[in-house]
Design a protein that fits this description.
alpha+beta, 274 residues, four-stranded antiparallel beta sheet
């Protein structure tokens, strides 16, 4: 009996060591469990950039084939390339089938990076990526990009871009990135990060328009806007229109941060189910 028990414990220990050795370097999650199964090549590409935007480069890393990972030499080099990235959003995705297990994807990419505390750089690229099917899942095997434009936003434009990005992240369920745009005091008003996320459980989209600067200083800025929020519940859809004001300030090392916001409901209606 003692011999059998010792054998079982030895096998469990060996299994644990093998699992640890094959786990990812950033979180200990087995590779096969870190991204959804059954995605198309286009969905896989979107998921990659979604995770980059949301500040989860480890999950984006898993979308790459082993050969493409080796091209970066290390996970640290890969993450360093996105250290200043605020958003990475593909659009106009087109697919070209090469063979049963190879797909080439063409797309436009808009990338926003923080250059310093007061400026964001907005770049657009014409990109392509070769996708390979690996054990039933599509992964990125290589990628190229040609820069089409590069614009450095001034301080006021950067503050507005941060506010726009915040609501775009809410729409795309990129809550970690959205949370990073908030000042520490504003975060406390939500209670916790999980409570913040729960507040947008039914949100379909959160879009601001008609932005106007109403208080303007070198380190502080107030922006008035119209917010259109769409929510979907099991019972009904609801569209709500708010008039809002967001107050932003420059925080050294973090750039423009939303330190408070107030929204006043103007109208509400219930459209047919989407």
């Amino acid at each position: 009996m003692k011999k059998i028990l010792l054998l079982v414990l030895t096998m469990v220990f060996a299994f644990t060591c093998a699992l640890s050795a094959s786990a990812n370097p950033y979180g200990g999650v087995p590779i096969a469990h870190t991204f959804p199964a059954g995605m198309t090549p286009a969905e896989t590409l979107e998921y990659f950039h979604h995770k980059i935007t949301d500040g989860e480069p480890g999950l984006a890393w898993d979308i790459l084939t082993e050969d493409y990972k080796n091209a970066f030499r290390s996970y640290g080099n890969f993450t360093e390339g996105y250290r200043t990235t605020l958003s990475s959003r593909p659009s106009n995705i087109r697919q070209l089938q090469r063979d049963a297990d190879t797909m080439e994807v063409f797309y436009l990419l808009k990338a926003e990076d923080r250059e310093n505390d007061r400026q964001i750089v907005v770049q657009t690229f014409e990109c392509s990526a070769v996708m390979k099917r690996v054990y039933g899942s599509w992964k990125i095997d290589s990628g190229t990009g040609k820069r089409l434009s590069r614009v450095v936003l001034n301080s006021r434009e950067t503050a507005r871009a941060v506010l726009m990005d915040y609501h775009e992240c809410i729409t795309n369920k990129e809550f970690r990135r959205a949370w990073s745009f908030l000042g520490d005091g504003y975060k406390k008003s939500f209670g916790s990060f999980s409570a913040f996320c729960n507040g947008f459980t039914t949100t379909v989209s959160s879009v601001i328009s008609d932005t106007v600067n109403v208080a303007d200083g070198p380190d502080m800025l107030s922006i008035q806007y119209t917010l259109t929020a769409k929510d979907a519940t099991p019972e009904s859809n609801v569209v709500q229109i708010f008039k809002g004001t967001a107050n932003l300030e420059v925080v050294p090392g973090r750039g423009w941060i939303i330190f408070s916001a107030e929204n006043k409901l103007e109208s509400r209606y219930f459209p047919p189910k989407w």
